[in-house]
Amino acid sequence: MALATPGADVSAAAPKYETVIGLEVHAQLLTRSKMFCGCPTTFGARPNTQTCPVCLGMPGSLPVVNRRAVEFGIRTALAFGCRINDACRFARKHYYYPDMPKNYQISQYEEPLAENGALEIEAEGGTRTIGIQRLHLEEDVGKLLHEGTLETAQASLVDFNRSGVPLMETVSRPELRSPEEAATYLKAFRAVLIFLGVCDGNMEEGSLRCDANISIRPHGSTTLGTKVEIKNLNSFRNVQRALEFEERRQAQALDAGERIVQETRLWEADRGYTRSMRSKEFAHDYRYFPEPDLVPLQIDRRWVEEIKGSLPELPRAWRRRAVAQYGLPPYDAEVLTQSRALVDYYEAALHEWSPAAGAGAERPKILSNWIMSELLRVLPGDDERAIGASPIPPARLVGLLQLIENATISGKIAKDVFQKMFDTGDDARTIVERDGLTQVADEGALGQVIESVMAANPKAIEDYRRGKKEAKGALVGQVMKATRGKANPALVNRLLEDKLSQT
Amino acid sequence: MTHRPIHELTEAYRRGDLTPTAAAEDYLARIGALDGKIGAYLTVVRDQALAAARESEARWSAGSPRGPLDGAPIAVKDVLCTAGVRTTCGSKMLERFVPPYDATTVERLRAAGAVILGKTNLDEFAMGSSTEHSAYHPTRNPWDLTRVPGGSSGGSAAAVAGGLAAGAYGSDTGGSIRQPAAFCGVVGMKPTYGRVSRYGLVALASSLDQIGPFAQDVTDAAHLLAAVAGHDPLDATSIEAPVPDYAAELPKGVAGLTLGMPDEYFPDGMDPEVERAVRAAIDVLKGLGAKIERVSLPTTPHALAAYYVILPAEASSNLARYDGVKYGLRVAGRDLIDMESRTRSAGFGAEVKRRIMLGTYVLSAGYYDAYYGKAQSVRTLVRREFAAAFAKVDLIVAPTTPNVPFKHGEKQDPLSMYLNDVFTIPGNLSGIPGVSVPCGFSAAGLPIGLQVLGRPLDEARVLRAAYAYEQATSWRSRRPELT
User: Fold this and answer.
1) What is the ipTM of this complex?
2) Inter-chain contact B99–A53, Cβ cutoff 8 Å?
3) Please, what is the end-to-end C-alpha distance for chain B in angstroms?
4) Tens digit of each residue's pLDDT (9 = 90 or more) over B246-267
5) Crossing angle for the helix pair B300-318 and B374-392, to the nearest 10 degrees
6) Interchain proximity A62–B364, CB inside 8 Å
7) Domains of chain A
8) Hey, what domains does chain B have and what are their CATH numbers?
9) 0.90 surpassed by pTM
10) Among this protein's residues, is B152 annotated catalytic?
């Protein structure tokens, strides 16, 4: 096994070789019950409490297809523009592993649910369309818990709660050209699943898992190099890092005149390298054959049309609309579409703030700034759970932003108020009043109001300068009006005198 | 009383001449006295049986029995899961396996008020045609204890023939109900694939397995089938079609029906006594008004070969789960792979290992098309040939087996054992229903079976023909002498 030199320049491989990457993504579907039985799919339950004869692979038990899982598969396939096959079939994939109770996995092989779709991603140099070869359904396996490390464990325990949870496998075509692009694909892919509501996209808990196939070839070559499969990529960062490592390792091997071995390698995130798991010579012969316990699925076209009609606006469409309609920068739109809940939050807030069309052209951007820099800073995540539990719902955030907009508080003070809102769960106005922030004690903010009042009342200034001192009272009144009476009158008087005396 | 069919027992319950408890006690006593010789049972559930009988008795005395099986003392093959009662499949692998659930068939039998006496013996994991290859003990044919009862459901067939159960259930993958029924001189029916739920039937070959009854006469067979037939949401391959009142259809006779006699089921060299008895039976049906026509099923000789590719393929997959990790036998080893390999070496018998190896081979990369793919093509041909034949005839009549029961230890070569199922296998490959009904005895007093095959879901007509034949003859009055 050739190990790349630590710290070698990643870009060193770029000029000489072209990188070819394809991703296989496994997504746990958000169905209430498992793929082939009625057991619940809740994550984190006590071991072996969500099992039955079917997902334990008991003798005599039989699988029955979860209709909802098929619907989720079709939803996703439609979102990627795949062809939904009229008939598809499940197949048994055989290998021995103690977390798999039947020692075969019910999956799909020659006749998958859907084929030939695509996902558009924003890559360096513009939009790229990455082909999706196939999408199929299968069942998840259980989990092994070792006493100590795998190498030293005297015993291992099996938790079958996850056994039988519906998985959707989607295989991209080998059309990704860099590790960065692979990470971008995975992000965009995840966002689509989240928008569709078919997967929670949680990579840490394993709801979304990714394997990558990577090969390199001399620039201009049309044949593919020998590919290596990398497993254990449980974050966007790891996908990119592992592929960068592998790209480098393969380039160094080729440069040294070695040949790339077709094999499966495991990414060691802590150590920053991939290591060989098994070579092709020891590859499993899965002995696929059609699952005799299930009849082929006939997909009803009307059902597909029904599902098509219920598809939500997808991330890409939303981003386009947000850029065109709200004037959001593409970057902001991209960040917001990492989560359906985030987009919903954004939309709700914007609606709250701008009931009338055309009002406040800068509001969409102000809002996305606050969400990206403040809200996402304090929340534990951007998923539905985190957003839903936020102590600052959209209307409250808008309440705070309105206080800035009408100059009740400055943007600087507003950040403190935001933190207090998060900590206490109170609304902005309550905090501002309770903490005596109601008066505009901020000279800078007040100064701005005064300047705009002065600019709008040239005649009063002229009168004052001509010695008509009572004209100042009218200006103070205007400032108080502009601040809805919340400015400190003494401060207004002093600031106004200062400004009137500067000519 | 132990040789009275279920419909006579329940008639006696109704009249008050007999109680289900008394019937169950009689059967249990007879099992205690005779099963040491026959070896029909692997497990007898005395207390459960008596408890169920008492409940049935209460219903009968209240005048509210649940139907024609209420209080019927029956047995089930030990491949049907029974909650809380060990289900061994005749294998050391599952010697201590106690399922937490009832098979749908068992659940429906309990709901019908049947009294389950115990679990019957079989060739290990239903692989065999003689019930010699149970990991526990062989079963003997009640008509001649030196001979086999057939298999793999030999325990159920011998129990009904020997008066150790009033009726029984088995599973038929390549003839495992019909062949032992013929060997033991009882009625045995394999319904259409999908007619009876397979949920809880420990799988041999999932695309071929089907549960069905053993009975003392055709009337009982009709009741026993009706009680367990019908769609089950837990079995995706079970058919959603209404279950006819089979018993009500029985008296309609065979007049006007066309019965096909396939040339390939009367090959040169078959046992002349079997041929004579079956031809005579067909003449009886002709005399009852049926029209007899010759039909040809030319793929029949290839069916056996296709079967012995498909069956091991599916079996090797179905048996992969027995690895010592979750249930059943575990033999300790150095590491996981060593443990699994020792467990499977110790837990499976020779025939099971042979079929696992065959099945693993035919599904391997590079061999799949040549074996499994080809076998599936043959299967399609067999199915088409039956469909073409059934376009011309209503039913097919043929021998159930090419020979009479053989002696224990007589067939050492696996191939000669496999050949025993040559007339029953095509029915499984095509999924059609078939029944074996007693049609005489050899000179040595060994039973012979007539097989009636029908169109998919046409069990009613299959049973009707069997019933017409049975009513016109008196074979069922003969009983083996056991003391």
Assistant:
1) 0.96
2) yes
3) 15
4) 999 999 999 999 999 999 999 9
5) 130
6) no
7) 10-302 (no CATH), 315-434 (no CATH), 443-501 (1.10.10.410)
8) 6-250 (3.90.1300.10)
9) no
10) yes
